[in-house]
Write a structure and sequence with these properties.
By secondary structure, this protein is an alpha/beta fold. The protein has 11 helices and 14 strands. Strands 2-1-3-14-13-4-5-12-10-11 form a 10-stranded mixed β-sheet, with helices on both faces. The model has no long low-confidence stretch (mean pLDDT 95).
């Protein structure tokens, strides 16, 4: 097998403290993978005058995938390209409990579901501005019984739900449910009672697509009802699909069921490309302390290995990580342990 080319962005704040040792862990597995770190952000600006140089864009375009560290700075230019430039429309966020996870639930055993978050539209298009920009549209709120201009100065944000964007991510969810050896259930959620035009559109598309999958159990819940169900009985969930904003928020809440954001992996998939990143942010409050939990990054790496065709190494890496939690001796402080980030990675390496 020829070498796979993986672009690595270490990210900002505490993110490099997990990205660097996890990439080293992957390199120790001696797989035919070439890891490359093109410049992006402040370093790229100093050297080339651009935060996202053309050379970096070309490196992504000629790679097999990207392993992306959490960012809060100029590196978001690369993230936006990976998302909208590569059309990675399905953000897959697994929620799986293991023994040893510091769950707040009395009985988290059996939690094993996936949030499929639409990744390219909704409010995340960033279509925002001053309300007075919309005066010429003469928008009228049937809920407030008032024109938008009557509400006075303020800001707006546009929520956009398209047929093509909804169809592809909902169909992705059904195909995923078919492949998983689980309940073969798809749960769709949005705020379709209040936002009957936009979120209602997303639901109606889901209702139509469900008819194409008679082997998959399909259900839909209003997002607040769904959240209550997710907290009280998460074990019944299999594949959950929702628009961008809800998916982002709900998947972070799902991580809380397990024991925190340090346990939440993520992969963003399109028809021709995918990139992988932990679901958590840059954790600036603990930067430089070598205490950030690398589990989310390791599990994101497992998803990446599977995408690259390295299924058995992915199983081995996931199993080694699960064994560390099962033993409970080398856990980071968010999981009620005292191990450093590097200690945890070393323990995983010893179990490989």
């Amino acid at each position: 097998m020829p070498d796979k080319r993986v672009i690595v962005f270490d990210g900002d704040d505490a993110s490099p403290e997990v990205m660097i040792p996890v990439v080293s862990l992957l390199e120790s597995m001696r797989l035919p993978i070439q890891f490359m770190r093109p410049l992006v952000g402040a370093d790229a600006k100093r050297k080339s005058g651009h935060v996202f140089p053309q050379e970096t864009k070309r490196a992504i375009d000629t790679s097999d995938t990207t392993f992306f560290g959490s960012t809060s700075g100029a590196s978001t230019a690369a993230l936006f390209y990976l998302r909208w430039g590569k059309k990675t429309y399905a953000n897959i966020r697994p929620c799986v409990w293991w023994p040893g996870f510091n769950s707040p639930l009395a009985n988290p055993e059996g939690i094993d579901f996936i949030v499929v978050r639409e990744n390219l539209e909704d409010l995340y298009l960033g279509l925002e501005g001053d309300i007075d920009e919309l005066d010429s549209l003469k928008l009228y709120s049937k809920h407030a019984n008032a024109s938008l201009s009557d509400l006075g100065p303020g800001k707006y944000a546009i929520k956009a739900i398209t047929r093509s964007g909804s169809e592809r991510v909902i169909r992705y969810a059904f195909e995923l449910a078919r492949k998983r050896n689980k309940q073969k259930r798809v749960t769709l959620s949005s705020k379709y009672n209040m936002l009957s035009t936009s979120d209602g559109y997303f639901k109606s598309i889901g209702d139509d697509i469900a008819g194409e999958y008679p082997d998959i159990r399909y259900e839909s819940f209003i997002i607040d009802d769904f959240l209550c169900r997710m907290i009280t009985n998460p074990q019944v969930l299999d594949v959950v699909v929702m628009p961008n904003l809800y998916g982002d928020i709900i998947s972070d809440g799902a991580a809380g069921l397990l024991g925190g954001m340090g346990l939440a992996p993520s992969g963003c998939y399109g028809d021709d490309y995918a990139y992988f990143e932990s679901a958590h942010g840059t954790a600036p409050d603990i930067a430089g302390q070598n205490v950030i939990n690398p589990t989310a990054t390791i599990l994101s790496a497992c998803m990446m290995l599977e995408y690259l065709g390295f299924g058995e190494p992915a199983v081995n890496l996931r199993g080694a990580t699960k064994k560390v939690y099962g033993e409970g001796k080398v856990l980071t402080r968010d999981q009620q342990g005292s191990a450093s980030t590097l200690d945890f990675c070393s323990a995983v390496a010893q179990n490989l």
